[in-house]
Amino acid sequence: MSNEKQLSEKESLQLITDMIQKVKNSYHDKGVGPLLWGTVVAIASFVSYLQLQFNFSLPFDIWWIVMGAIIPQIILINQDAKTQKIKRHEDAALNAVWLVYAITIFGLSFFQAIVPNAAEQIMQLNGWQIIKHEINNSKPDEVIKPFTPSFYSMYILIYGFPTLVTGIVKKFWPMTIGAIIAYILFMVSCFTETKYDFLLGAVAAIACWFIPGIILQMKYQKQKRANV
After folding, report:
1. Residue 56: strand, helix, or coil
2. How many distinct structural domains can be found in the chain?
3. 26: helix, strand or coil
4. What's this model's pTM, rounded to 2 decimal places?
């Protein structure tokens, strides 16, 4: 009887251990999402800075790679939901947070692309124009199109939102610190030119996602090797 009881206790302990390990292997613990977002946002931001700094353009909008990152993220979350046998409310909540973040980024991009053109059409209908006038009269007046000044600051602000939520929920300090850095960079960007905003955005992406993603992936791989 004592042997059977001891065996049962060992089996129960092993079962609990296996359950804990399976729970830890969720989408948010593997670092895949942060690495994905950190890479594409950092690249797009830095390339945008280079375009403004050196006055060149690409045959396509570099920010389409960020829009494209939304699709694999949704696929990865769905795959994780199918393979994860043990469901946690916090993972479902984090999935919703990151999905809302992706939709918000798309909404900001849509706003930035549509509103200036819409504003220009409204101005033309009303017979208005925006004139660039040099105070020292060094250059003749120039008609310019409507634009959203330093709009990328809003992106940096949004970057901190899902990062801080994930860091707090998961008690993962690298993400919490990354979010704080993003908020600080947002405040700095309010006083800088647009081209430097993009550079600050690249730093924010690396701090929020790329570095934490590497740390999460290393922990996941170490745990995976230990369970083999």
Report:
1. coil
2. 1
3. coil
4. 0.78
